[in-house]
Amino acid sequence: MTIFGIPPQALFGQLLIGLINGAFYAMLSLGLSVIFGLLNIINFAHGALYMMGAFVAYFALQWAGIGYWPSLLIGPLVVGLVGIVLERTMLKRLYHLDHLYGLLLTFGIALVIQGVFRNEFGSSGLPYGIPKQLQGGYNLGFMFLPMYRAWVIVFSLVVCLGTWYVIERTRLGSYLRAATENPALVQAFGINVPRMITLTYGFGVALAALAGVLAAPIYQVNPLMGADLIIVVFAVVVIGGMGSILGSIVTGFALGVVEGFTKVFYPEASNTVIFVIMALVLLVRPAGLFGRTA
Amino acid sequence: MSTVTAKPGEATLPAETAAVSRVPAHQVLAFGVMTALLIVAPFAVYPVFLMKALCFALFACAFNLLIGYVGLLSFGHAAFLGSAGYATAHAAKVWGLPPEVAILFGTAVAGVLGVAIGAVTIRSRGIYFANITLAFAQMIFFCSLQAKFTGGEDGIQAVPRGTFLGLLDLRQMYVLYFVVLAIFLVGFVVIYRAIHSPFGQVLKAVRENEPRAISLGYRAEHYKLIAFVLSATLSGLAGGTKAIVFQLASLTDVHWTMSGEVVLMTLLGGLGTVFGPVVGAFILVALENYLAQLGAWVTIVQGAIFVVCVLTFRRGVVGELGRLLRKPL
Predict the structure, then answer these.
(1) What is the pLDDT along chain A (294 residues), one digit of tens a residue?
(2) Looking at chain B, which residue has its C-alpha nearest residue A45?
(3) Which residue of chain A comes nearest to B1, CA vs CA?
């Protein structure tokens, strides 16, 4: 049996890989969007912090024997704290300047973090095992579905939708959206906006770290795992519309799938397809698919 | 970043460019000192190092034209440097063209690429512009990785240097150096003239207050696009020259880290200053030379310089110097 001349195993296999990649795109671009909405900076350190999340999980296992499940909590917490320190000590000083300086600063931070980790651990990946409970897989008849991959897709979907719910449907989220529109007015109502900014940055970064922990058993733990990924995620954010929460989730998953299918039908273009889509979207809708015109 | 003193109610526009066409004495002096130093330098310092620095200096000057005078931060300028390098190397090696034609071909390729990318990106600004140029550059990177003629991971190696204009044998180190120096100076003067022309004044007006420039009848997008293409073309000139000097066109020059490096050079030297990018390029290339044995330390030091520059040293070396002397350099 074939579909469009492609054996279904290959087709569904790539669909699965696409969904996995899409899950990471979605979580990373969601964090970027949340940060961009309130701080108006593109967090270039996002890839480096994603990598740090994976490394926290690795260290926890190597040094303290702490396994995968606690790491899902520890990774985001530790990296979130790092993010809060970065925001308090450095980013905070740049809010009165052109937003481009924020981009340059986080770019510098990313270089430092990646350089330090590469010095310590080289460029080859460190293995991180799949937790016992999630080993093995299901035979669906038309394809084999590894349990861990199914877990990553479901879990990240839950995290993304949970974040969307908190931002769009709760009181806390309404403060956040209001501060995105007009921080001065929100502060005048007695809400501590600087603290909100700090926590938002910490939260966005924690999402990246969570993605890093999830990625550790799939891609291995590598100092440069976030370096090139983040550029693709930037393109995803542009396509979805910068600062759009739902946009980053939907385009994240969708582009992962598109990329997966491109690998089946025209492998040569699989690396560039997202950038081509970005160019086309920009021609038609400069603010992105879900973005409002600036 | 702002060098224009646009007081309220007084626009800095072509009507007042009488003072602009005259080059201030201190800048002529600085240009003379720079040229003299660069003429003497190869007899004291390793010429290949100097040529590398000169190529990057031209690249940084071209980049500065965009960030310093139009206020657009392109995070994808490596695309122009790298693709011009590939085009030049291909023209010189496979087609056997003489070096000057090969470099011009590479420059033209970068210019055409600049028109294509600029036409799509120029409507955006600020962070959007940075993000989109970065994504386009990454597209070029993957194309270079997969295209047949670029040689993938190997790049195009052993590019012949040949004879420049049929007269100058570029296999001789000093001849090559002075040809590279001449190319750099031509590029530098072109940029200088562009900045200090009525065209440059309009660019600054657009940077300072785009709606106002438009209301005065200037087609802001055209001016920005011309500046973008000029910047791309001159980056291509730098890339083509670099390919002839090192006899190599490789993926390093198209990778986004290269785009980051040129930002760093310009930032360190001084955004929007005439001589800043040159100084920044020399400092950074020297630094990389000394740190080359230390592996990933280069990245760490670069990152640290970025952080320090952004937090405390936003005027850059030349910007600070100009402030001390109270003269724009």
Answers:
(1) 566 777 777 888 889 999 999 999 999 999 999 999 888 888 999 999 999 999 999 999 999 989 899 999 999 999 999 999 999 999 999 988 888 899 999 999 999 999 999 988 888 888 898 988 888 888 887 778 889 999 999 999 999 999 999 999 999 999 998 998 888 999 999 999 999 999 999 999 999 999 999 999 998 899 989 988 998 999 999 899 888 889 999 999 999 999 999 988 888 888 889 988 988 888 888 788 887 654
(2) B303
(3) A98
Contacts 24+ apart (CB under 8 A), A284-290: A286/B123, A286/B124, A287/A241, A288/A237, A288/A238, A288/A239, A288/A240, A288/A241, A288/A242, A288/A244, A288/A247, A289/A239, A289/A240, A289/A241, A289/A247, A289/A251, A290/A240, A290/A241, A290/A244, A290/A246, A290/A247, A290/A250, A290/A251
Q: Where are the domains of chain B?
A: 47-255
| Domain spans, chain A | 29-227
- B305 contacts in chain A (CB < 8 Å): 108
Both structure tokens of A223: 């100092």
Residues of A in contact with B302 (CB under 8 A): 108, 111, 115
ipTM of the complex: 0.85
Chain A with chain B: Cβ pairs closer than 8 A:
124
* Min Cα–Cα distance to chain A from B137, Å: 9
pTM: 0.89
Selecting from A36, A97, A115 the residue whose C-beta is nearest the C-beta of B303 gives: A115
Residue B132 structure tokens: 């989109």
What residues in A contact B316, CB-CB < 8 Å?
Answer: none
Q: What angle, 0 to 180 degrees and rounded to 10, lies between the N-to-C axes of helices A68-89 and A193-219?
A: 140
